[in-house]
Amino acid sequence: MPVTSNTGTVTPVLGGEITIATIGGGPFDVVSAFAIGGGTPDGFGQLIYRLYSIVGGLSSLVAESTIVGGGASSILQWQIPGSGGAASQFVRAGGTSYTLTVTAVPGVGQTLEFATQPRSPATATVAGDDENDAAAPATISPVLVVPPYSIASSPNVAGFAQSMDVSVDQTGLPQTTIITIFANNGPGSVEAVVQSVTLPGPDATTAVLRNVTLPAASVYRVGVSNQSGAAISVPLGIATYSVVAVAGAGALTPLAGNVGVSGPENANLIAPTAPLQGEALVTQFGAAAWQSAVQNNPYWNQATWFVDPLNSTGTASDANDGMTVATAVLSYNGGIATKWGTYSPRLRQNTSIQWLSSQLGTGDPVILTPIMDALPPSTAGAVLMVSGVLGPSQEVGSGVLAGVIAKNRTTGQLLTADLGVVFPQGTLIQNTTPGKASFAWTYLNTGGTTFNLTQPLAPIVPPADFGNVTEVDTWANGDTFVAYAPVAINVIKVQPLIAVAAPIPTPTQSLQLINMYCFSVNGAGGSSIFIYNNVTLTQCVLDSYLIDNTENDVRRTGYINVCAIGGGASGNASNIFSMFLAGLNLTPDTASYAFDYDAILDAGFGSLMRSPFSDPIVTKNQQGRLYISGKSIWNGTWDLTNGNLSQPPACVIWGPGLFEAQGAGTRIFIPDAPGSAETVFLNTGGIHLDDQTVANTFDPITNVWSGPFTITAANIDNPAEFNGFAINVGGACITNQGTP
């Protein structure tokens, strides 16, 4: 008889057991189950699946399996309760029907905060058959032509079958060719990667992979992944077969007609069945030559993904391949992460993920922790670009600029314009006037429909780097503009792991976020986004609380024209290597960045700029041009002598804010030149040392202390007063003496 299967989807509940799928028509002596989803945002939440056999209305627990939810789908490895025996993908138990349930439980070491958060939906397929009812043996010999960095599939082979042999003519095939066996139970079921192997080629030997154990399934197919830059032709030989008991003898004998694997021959490629809901990763069955599917998942080689949470195309589905706009997936976790089988795929080619529409709610948190590698012979690591589309669907207004007041650092004037409409803070404004193409953010509404705007930057062609930032200071009355609300994505963690990167120094970061609104699910600043080394965010607005955990590393992180309005904190002082270029940082907490290009630091009642006092890597802690509002507190060692990327004669601190140097040992270095303090400190809110408005000075030649004097830029420069050195004795100082 054919395989009996059923697929269900439920949302697991912590501690609650829920039925997910049931099959009837038993008894079966081969029962397999495939499952995906059901994870927590941190990726550690576990699920317990239980299989019950039902006889005459009596339900008995016959097997259970514990897995980590939310990652790849898997063929469940069953344990018989109380047996202590080895796990198996098969269950043999009498019964007229079988029920599969799921229970959410905390993961090992998982915090209560994440363990109690809602789970993503879990989908499972349970399938059963009798070993004596195996399908007739099948032998096919397709030749698959696979484009560069692509995947192709053989025709389907009907199940249930107990075993499969695959032969591959490796003549001329590169080492980057991956062969994968898939199993499923028809459209809508959970598909599983049964085995995956990277060919050792090229050579002239036909490699035969024998006796691969197959799960209970109605469909099997073989996929070929080409990770090279040239198209390949792959001759395959595929055979399925089974052994059955001879009646009354108890012996096993092969089914008649099993002729094994014949030599490869030409055949037309038949498209696989309708897309399925996931890819499972199952390792080390059968022949020792097989490697773990975790190491060779063919979806890791897919260079383009599209995500459409609102189904704006009308064709989005997590069962799609995600390779085109027309075949976009609905969600990141269900459509991409489950196919990858992890949040940390090994990416060896440049890869892009583009959101076509916004996420709604909390059900699809985005965690990006890829392993960035290279495809030999290249020595330059791959780049993952994650972006939101910026087009008509994101437009929230348009018009003509009026009442424009140009930026002026000397007077503390930001770029100001009447937009004719009241937009929220963090609206992206594009100047569409020919010759003035540039982007800025709405910062403050100064009355009516007039706004202070952030520094406009010319469009940045991805992948972004710190060397292609250009200010545009030509906005004027009559210029046309378009206002955008970028695509909303619930990004939680961005931490690429670098296996191979471009040689140092390199301006291109390995993971880049572009044109998106990284939103907080609990309102502005109510939830967090964690950013680590080797990341660039470009033209993104964040209302999540930004936690920058960048370590001391030349592969610094960059925020280019970013509008961070949810607050934030440095995970450590070492994120001074993070570049914050133009844009807005609205934080009352720690903001230890290397600012430049007239970035705005709105410090509120007090934002701490914290730098290491002494560090073998962080030796300069340079700042460029920075607008401050509120109280900006500077702690540690800071070099304001040489500017930053924009390379003015020195750093320029301007705007209405208060510059506060604070803490014993804090040293603020300014250029050793006449008038340098008045060049650096253009801010009108004052200069304090440890909350003091007066300070002393010391002349090392005469060995004489003098003061106190009122702390102003002019007095710091005045030879008759501070003469370039102002110090709160036992506390902070501003000095033009010594070397930063």
Descriptive notes:
The chain is mainly β. The chain folds into four domains: 4-130, Jelly Rolls (Sandwich); 138-298, Jelly Rolls (Sandwich); 392-484; 603-740, no CATH class. The chain has four helices and 63 strands. Strands 23-25-28-39-42-45-48-50 form an eight-stranded parallel β-sheet, with helices on one face. It has an eight-stranded parallel β-sheet with strand order 36-40-43-46-49-51-53-56, with no helix packed on it. The longest helix has 9 residues, at 332-340. It starts with a strand and ends in a 5-residue tail after the last strand. 51% of the residues are buried. The model is unreliable at 245-295 and 612-620 (pLDDT under 50).
Q: Give the number of helices.
A: 4
Please give the radius of gyration in angstroms.
31 Å
Structural class: mainly beta
Query: Which of globular, elongated, flat, extended, rod-shaped describes the shape?
Result: elongated
Output the CATH topology of the largest domain: Jelly Rolls
Distance between the termini: 81 Å
Helix content: under 10%
What is the CATH architecture descriptor of the largest domain? Sandwich
